[in-house]
Amino acid sequence: MRLGLFTCGYQRYSLEKAFADARRFGYDYIELWGGFPHACVEDLKTNTTAQIRALTDKYEMPVECFTPEHNAYPFNYMMGSEAQWERSMSYLEDAIDVTAELGAKKMLFSAGHAGYEAREKEIFARLEKSLRRLADYAQKRDVTLILEPLTVYESNVICGLRDLDRALTAVEHPHLAGMCDLAVPFTTGEPAAEYVKRLGKRFRYLHIIDNDGVSDSHLLPGEGRIPLREVLTEIRRAGYDGQATIELVTGYLKEPSVYAGLAMKRIREALEED
After folding, report:
1. Distance (Å) of CA 117 to CA 18, 101, 150, 202, 224
2. Residues with catalytic function
3. CB atoms near residue 140 (< 10 Å)
4. Where is the Xylose isomerase-like TIM barrel domain (predicted)?
5. pTM check: above 0.90
6. How many CB atoms lie within 10 A of CB 44?
7. By CB distance 3.0 to 4.6 Å, which of 29, 90, 122, 224 could disulfide with 210?
8. How far is 244 from 147, CA to CA, in rounded Å?
9. How far apart are CA 56 and CA 174, in angstroms?
10. Which domains does the chain have, with CATH numbers?
């Protein structure tokens, strides 16, 4: 697998530190977090992506996926008025533009919580409308959208393989694909490798993380309850050996270099043992 570093954990440091660490620890690429202070969509739209491209060249570390911060930050296309939906769509279309300008081929996004009052029919109609619009826009910029399921602690829209398969079947589009964050199948009781088997060519990405099984926690590999070596073995046997970001987030802000290095070491060892 090609392993990526997620820059979210470096938000209290300069973005250059993340690129330098990715090079130092042997990561293959960057998954760029689109949040303050590094890569806000609004900032990159009004200014330039040249500084980030310069880091890519300096450290020979490509940005292969852009992940804009959304879902109630303050953007959530699954909840609110028509005006709020339009604002969220416009924001994500700007994020697609940024992805293309960065030279990345993938943008990762998810479906936020639709609220407790919405009915299933309403939820799916809004989801389908949103995915179709974004996929059509992504096609214009030659970007592939990667739809990420969330845990049931984060959303009530796409929280497992059945939800993801249903969405990708309803909006069958060459620029829309799915992925798996290992926390999701572990908390829902699903085999992670089934994502690869059922989605086939529609499966394009992986987030490697550990989890406690009872929350949306994203833990350092080896610190939770997921048998990572065995799960990764099954995923590879199912036919996926592509991009996989080690998704350390806000729990490791204090020492991102320490944990980025340790995470890479543990996952490389697991893959080599396999």
Report:
1. 41, 39, 19, 31, 34
2. 148, 247
3. 12
4. 19-252
5. yes
6. 24
7. 224
8. 14
9. 27
10. 2-273 (3.20.20.150)
